[in-house]
Amino acid sequence: MPKKLVIKVTAGADAPERCSQAFTVAAVAAASGVEVSLWLTGESSWFALPGRAAEFDLPHAAPLPDLIDGILAAGGRITVCTQCAARRAIEEKDLLEGFRIAGAQVFVQEAMSDETQALVY
User: So which domain of life are we looking at (predicted)?
Assistant: First the structure.
């Protein structure tokens, strides 16, 4: 089993099931002791802003704020894509505590490290 899981979520409220699945997998992996790096790209970038995750609703799915809290509490990292943030005028100062903005070079570095599994949703 990989020691690190890098998950890139490309969907937000526009594809709620795919979005929720990515956050759920990240939270379960983090709670299981796997080192998790969750990357928010495209429309999922909005969930890095205060209050946005609480607006997301999908029947029979765990609330996004709870999943985010679980990921961060277990030592997971949540990153917003640099270009995606720029296209939405999201700056580092706007982000929830524990989130960061980073680019493709960092994503590739994380995804290609030894004993890492990468998933894209």
Answer: Bacteria
List CB contacts of 107: < 8 A, sequence separation 6 or more.
6, 8, 39, 79, 81
Topology of domain 4-120, CATH: Hypothetical Protein Ychn; Chain: A, (3.40.1260)
User: Which residues fall within 8 angstroms of residue 19, CB to CB, at 6 or more apart?
Assistant: 9, 11, 12, 13, 43, 44, 56, 58, 121
Domain boundaries, the chain: 4-120
- pLDDT tens column, 38-89: 999 999 999 999 999 999 999 999 999 999 999 999 999 999 999 999 999 9
